[in-house]
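Exam prep: given the inputs below (a chain plus flavin mononucleotide), describe the expected output before reading on.
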Amino acid sequence: MSVFAHQKKDEVLVLWLVSFAFSLALMGKCVTERRVKSIPKNALVFLIVLMYHFLMRFSQRVCVAPMMDVTDRHCRFFHRLLGPDVFLYTEMLHSLAIINGDSDKLLDFDNSEHPVGIQLGGNEPRILNQAAKIASKFNYDEVNLNCGCPSSKVVAGNFGVALMRKPQLVADCVKAIKDGASISVSVKHRIGIDDCKDYSFVRDFVGRVHDAGCDIFFVHARCAVSNLSPKKNRDIPPIDMFKVRFLKRDFPDCKFVANGEFDTVAKCRSILEKKKELSLPGVDGVMLGRAIRRYPVLLTDLQRAFYPKKNLRPTGEIITCLENYYHLQKRKGINSRRIVRSWVNLFNNKKGSKKWRFLLAEGVAPMEAYRRVFCS
Ligand SMILES: Cc1cc2nc3c(=O)[nH]c(=O)nc-3n(C[C@H](O)[C@H](O)[C@H](O)COP(=O)(O)O)c2cc1C
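Solution:
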């Protein structure tokens, strides 16, 4: 897959143009000064390093987790306004539903949502291959395979976290997805399941899947427990972030995105940094779920902290974008409650949050609700 896939095309073009002009200027200078043989190597090395830095930048450094019944297209549009550079994911979509269902309805999304990955559920390589083909037509930036969902229905269907016990099948699924879509393929998984909680279990799982060509892993740093509900299993047993660092140590050429209970910039920063005293590396990215759902505005803090071009929009502009999008979707016949169900949290923890939530839920459009709550 192209390393440029997640970069905005114009950004890449500008970089190439600047680099090209710079190289030309350097050469011109050397020629006019009759120093043809002494092209400044250091400057060229610097240039290559600089370009490498920008072009190979890991796009999934900060991600919003896939969340069923939460991260639909309306939610992602909203998240994109708050965090212009974070990586977004769909909810888990079963591969069979994509093949047999209304793919336009399931997969279509707004162009502004890029970079966005689609998360697939399933365990049949042939079906996943077809689903990935369909998804790639919609221009998703990544296909992620769910190997972490512990719901009893999912486990009974032998997908989600049940796949962690079948690493060879996951490897086959990854190969099939890669054959179907010429985009990045990743896997989201847990650090263990029930009695399989030794580090060697997750290490061997990652090793086998990596051999099949997957090099991005999203690690929910908690074991799956069969007799717990998915809701409880998001808090019990405790998180073990060391295992994610161990994975990074043991597979240094893979990218590891840590997931689980991140709710502040400081916690995210800490896992990205090395643990020098233990000689353990930092991980490559962080994925946040519930904290973003509860306090979407945390995305603006993450954007400010982790992206050099801050690109932050003032609140008024965000409300205007929501307003335009809201009317567009309503004209398409989408139910207003569905459109705003994640937007209602925008002002959580602020005075006026309850009224904002109430008005939106009652069908008042965002601009009018904002005026009534904050400008009266
Ligand atoms: C409402 C909800 C729905 C979820 N749905 C999915 C899903 O579709 N696919 C998935 O891989 N994980 C799903 N998860 C798990 C999250 O992606 C994430 O791994 C988990 O919440 C831990 O991260 P957090 O502590 O930052 O919330 C869901 C979590 C929640 C709260």
